[in-house]
């Protein structure tokens, strides 16, 4: 706006113009502040991202340097690495149905793996190399496990079925490899139904003390979980139906396969194909590959460290473990219960049910020992308010309060007859005196009418009082009846509780006999 336009503009116009310019400046300032805040936030994120990336790259570089040192140390174990390559070649040949060459253990005679592989090769060929088996067993505790899992993976599990029970000896828990071996046994990898039952019987003997242990509440909790029962009688009824074969199985949804995180850089042991879901032989191949990749006793820690460092180099931003992470062991009782709840094999189910009998016996005893549910108090609604009647009767103070509420309550419209009666007498006497003194008939009549009206009011008051008294008596009778009804309900509840306790004992006696009898 020019100076002349400003001069000829009115005062109101100048004010509006200035206000508009001030608003434009405020909006521009707010936009600039928002843009500045956005840029500051982006700069902060960029700085944080750069810092984290620099830290990750620094950690990756340190890991790369350390990995070089580890590789130099592993170079001193070239003989065992060569043996592992020969073993993997032999495994590949057997998997492909070809004849496998013996592994020459001369360069690493103190390493259990070549001797164990030669034992496997001999068994697959129809013979047996007892010297190799003995040497491998002497050099490493993993040798027997390797022979058994590899033969199972190759489809020759029946050759070593008798060795499976000793590999499943437990102190109450199983490692991952033992769990895989156990599930392969149930799947029939180590022989047909007859052979499997014999092996399971041997495993059951070794697990007898473990399965008989455990907390009684643990077993009762499992029964409650599987049955969905919410009281002791329902739990025992379910156990009875389970023993009678009337429970629909499987109880639970089939277990989900364990998810494993593959560690990059494992030697060709990892050539073993990924374990297919539900394929026990693939899981056994994975265990055998892991045992091969572990290396000898002297290089095991170096190989593990090399894998972790390689993982950190390949994925600097990843949050890999700083050291080897041991998976938690699997509790034997929980494993057997899980297999029983999920199996569809009648033979396996019958076998595992026999194993579960000691635990079910504990669950029965825990259910019987549990105190019965207390008889719940009965709440009654009365004219004087709610009243709770427990097994020992109603609370005396509360009952007195309810009665007082009824007796102290004056019904609406209730009249006191005293005042109208007195006034009616006064006006009657006044009318009589007026008649004797010679008052006019109109006055005497008016006084007499008032006396009559007051007399009627007095009569109505007495009637309303009697009606109120009858209502109070009825309300008090309702209270007494409510207390009596509550006592009757409590008596019925106690009788039902006694019946349930007796039925529970009878049911428990039968279960004790069946659970302690030979399956």
TrEMBL record:
Region feature (Disordered): 258-281
Keywords of this entry: Membrane, Transmembrane, Transmembrane helix
Transmembrane residue ranges: 412-433, 439-460
Regions of compositional bias (Low complexity) in chain numbering: 264-281
Key word Transmembrane helix present: yes
Descriptive protein name: Uncharacterized protein
Biological source species: Friedmanniella luteola
